[in-house]
Amino acid sequence: AYNIHVNGVLHCRVRYSQLLGLHEQLRKEYGANVVPAFPPKKIFTLTPAEVEQRREQLEKYMQAVRQDPTLGGSETFNSFLRKAQQETQQIPTEEVVLEVLLSNGQKVKVTILTSDQTEDVLEAVASKLDLPDDLVGYFSLFLVRETKDGAFSFVRKLQEFELPYVSVTSLHNPEFRIILRKSYWDSSYDDDVMEHRVGLNLLYAQTVSDIEHGWILVNKEQHRQLKSLQEKVSKKEFIRLAQTLKYYGYLKFDPCVTDFPEKGCHVVVSAGNNELNFQVRLPNEQIKEGSFKVTRMRCWRVTSSVPMSNGPSGTSPGKSEVKLELAFEYLMSKDRLQWVTITSPQAIMLSICLQSMVDELMVKKSGGSIRKMFRRRANGALRRSDSQQAVKSPPLLDSPDASREPMAKLSSKLTSVSLRGISHSSSANDVGANDFHGNYAFEGIGDDDL
Question: Closest Cα to residue 103, out of 176, 28, 11, 208?
Answer without folding.
Answer: 208
